Structure formats: C-alpha cells, structure tokens
Amino acid sequence: MASSLEIAGINKRFGNGDKSVEVLRRVDIHVAPGEFLILVGPSGCGKSTLLNIIAGLDDPTEGEVRIGGKNVVGMPPRDRDIAMVFQSYALYPTMSVADNIGFALEMRKMPKAERQKRIDEVAAMLQISHLLDRRPSQLSGGQRQRVAMGRALARQPQLFLFDEPLSNLDAKLRVEMRAEIKRLHQASGITSVYVTHDQVEAMTLGSRIAVMKGGVVQQLGTPDDIYNRPANTYVATFIGSPT
Ligand code: ADP
Ligand code: MG
User: Which of 63, 146, 199, 211 could form a disulfide with 9, with the two C-beta atoms 3.0–4.6 Å apart?
Assistant: First the structure.
C-alpha cells in the first residue's frame, strides 16, 4: 500500500540569533499515495534540506511531515520506512551485488530463502540479474546506480526519495536511467519525491512539479501548468516557457 506524504508549514533555519539563515519558508506540499513528485530549483534553493527533513536526517524549525497521515517529526530515520538514493552510490565495495541488495533485509533478520527471492525479484526488475555475483568495482556507472536503486527498492519502503541521483552520469546514460526510474516507479507504485536542478529532467519525469527558489515553492503543478501557465516570471524563465 502506497502512503501519502504531507509537508505542512515547514520552516528551516540554520544557526542561531542574527547569524541564522532561513533556508526553507512555509513549504506546503502534498504528495498523493503512489505519486511521483519532482522538486526542481537551482543549486542552494533548499532541495536537499527538505529531503533530509522528510527522511529525518534533519529537523524542521517549524512544521510537520506526515507520512500516511502520521506526523514523523522527531522520529528516528530508521523508523520512517524511507529509502533514499543519492548521486554517490556508496555501495559496499567488498560485497557482491546480491549482498549489497540484500544487506538491509539481512539486518532485518529476513530468512535467507525469502531474502534470496526478494533479491531475485528486484534484480529482474532492474535487469541486473546477470550481475549478482560481481563486486561494485566490476560495474559501470549506470550499473552501480541500478544496484543502488535495487538496494533501496528491496526494502519495499513506504517512500522513495531521490536526491539528484543521475547528476554524475553522462548525458546518454542519464536519459536511459530516467526511463528506467519511470518504469520502476510504475512497477513498484511507491510514493516518490525526486530532486533535480535539471529542468528537462523535471519536465519529462514528473506528473507534478514543485519549482523552488530561495527556500520558497514558487509553483506546484503539472508540467503543462508550469510550462503554459507559469505563476511568475521566475518560473517562466527557469522552465523556459514561451513569453
Ligand atoms: P540544494 O540541495 O537545493 O542545492 P541545500 O538544501 O543543500 O540546497 O542548501 C540550501 C541552503 O542551506 C544553502 O544556502 C546551504 O548553504 C544552506 N545549508 C545547508 N545545510 C546547512 C547547514 N548544515 N548549516 C548551514 N547552512 C546550510
Ligand atoms: Mg542538493
């Protein structure tokens, strides 16, 4: 069952007193169960900070994060049932691909047979079944990214967070992996938030897009809304709408 995600009235300040910096301001985003939402904006606009707050790696100064209707602010990351994929894959170098994918399941004490079945399913979904015995050093960049996604997917999380996962890949691979991520989302139906600074990626991947600038959501809408009915000149310029 997919969960909803509600980001409600999130403010975030770093530091104290007059040295403090406001990084997120009154962010309200509702993500429907099973939806794939894109968060797009220039570097430094607060995208990673928002993802970290959703994941519990950071706390908001104000506001709530509700997963399946439940406020999770203050709950440790491991209890939130969230998987996160970054641009750096951080695979375990000494483990095989299969062990990398199955590690979290082993930690959860899932029995070996069940674990093996889950690893095989995920590997088939990602078309990496032929790579299960290899080490990360024996893989290409795109294959490593698939393994990283497989590792996240194997846990069957309630929520999938992507923080610019493709920005280290070359242009051709990036296009290929975009299609892969889209397919994976359709197959798994897991509620997802995908962060990028790339307008093209945003427009091709998402069913809805939140455009951010300076810690504020400028517009939240479908690619059609954003492109054809930009809320302000910033959005129009950033997305490259016809004026
Ligand atoms: P993005 O992911 O959109 O590039 P970030 O969320 O990483 O942006 O950063 C947003 C702003 O918050 C930046 O100005 C960054 O310098 C600042 N920032 C991020 N983390 C911290 C921190 N731990 N302490 C102080 N400032 C931070
Ligand atoms: Mg970032």
Answer: 63
